[in-house]
TrEMBL record:
Residues 1-82 form the GST N-terminal domain. Its main location: cytoplasm. Coiled coil: none annotated. Pathway: Amino-acid degradation; L-phenylalanine degradation; acetoacetate and fumarate from L-phenylalanine: step 5/6. One of its GO terms (biological process) is glutathione metabolic process. InterPro entries: Glutathione-S-Trfase_C-like, Glutathione-S-Trfase_C_sf, Glutathione_S-Trfase, Glutathione_S-Trfase_N, GST_C, GST_Zeta, GST_Zeta_C, GST_Zeta_N. GO terms for molecular function: glutathione transferase activity; maleylacetoacetate isomerase activity. It comes from Circaetus pectoralis (black-chested snake-eagle). Its EC number is 2.5.1.18, 5.2.1.2. It catalyses: 4-maleylacetoacetate = 4-fumarylacetoacetate; RX + glutathione = an S-substituted glutathione + a halide anion + H(+). GO terms for cellular component: mitochondrion. This is Maleylacetoacetate isomerase. Residues 87-206 form the GST C-terminal domain. It is found in: Cytoplasm.
Length: 210
């Protein structure tokens, strides 16, 4: 497999965690979202992913984009350890939380939106994340065990950790979100979350490396 990725992309990080959890080795092709006006806009990368976004994964003779679509494929083809619970209600909760983050929070504060916000980008990002986290905190109080849904790592957790990283980057006050904070801390102790961290990637700038 070949993963087109950017060290600080939360969408890419989700996929890196899934690959690490499932023990799938892969090659990295870095796509710098800032350099050269954004390498994702090159004709070469547009041929890989017409949406001009990371991640993209070449695997088994196909190219997939969109992080959850990639993770679902990995789940279908390499089911252990599973990232979707067998229990139908828990599985629905995992998908709900993942969608909450992937659709309801992250796109509102991604690079393309922030560029349009100009000087207000920090305030915009903080407001979008805080609004989403208020709802997420309430949801997790009903679903969480050690992790987002019960005590098994799931697709929801793969979405949570990168989003908390974004929140910290944008200096969001995490005080009102004790459940999110607790789960994030527990997940960051796991090896798959450590090795996939933005501070440890091949394309991480020297000043940001762990």
């Amino acid at each position: 497999p070949i993963l087109y990725t950017y060290f600080r992309s939360s969408c890419s990080w989700r996929v890196r965690i899934a690959l690490a959890l499932k023990g799938i080795a892969y090659d990295v092709v870095p796509v710098n979202l800032l350099k050269d006006g954004g390498q994702q806009f090159s004709a070469e990368f547009k041929a890989v992913n017409p949406m001009q976004q990371v991640p993209a994964l070449k695997i088994d003779g196909i190219t997939l984009s969109q992080s959850l679509a990639i993770i679902h494929y990995l789940e279908d083809t390499c089911p252990n350890p599973r990232l979707l619970p067998q229990d139908r209600k828990k599985r629905a909760q995992v998908r709900m939380i993942a969608d909450h983050i992937v659709s309801g929070i992250q796109p509102l504060q991604n690079l393309s939106i922030l560029k349009q916000m100009g000087e207000k980008k920090m305030e915009w990002a903080q407001n979008c994340i805080a609004s989403g986290f208020q709802a997420l905190e309430q949801t997790l109080q009903h679903t969480a065990g050690r992790y987002c849904v019960g005590d098994e790592v799931s697709m929801a957790d793969l979405c949570l950790v990168p989003q908390v990283f974004n929140a910290e980057r944008f200096k969001v006050d995490m005080g009102p979100y004790p459940t999110i904070t607790r789960i994030n801390k527990a997940l960051l102790e796991l090896e798959a979350f450590k090795v996939s961290h933005p501070s440890l990637q091949p394309d991480t700038p020297a000043e940001l490396r762990a």
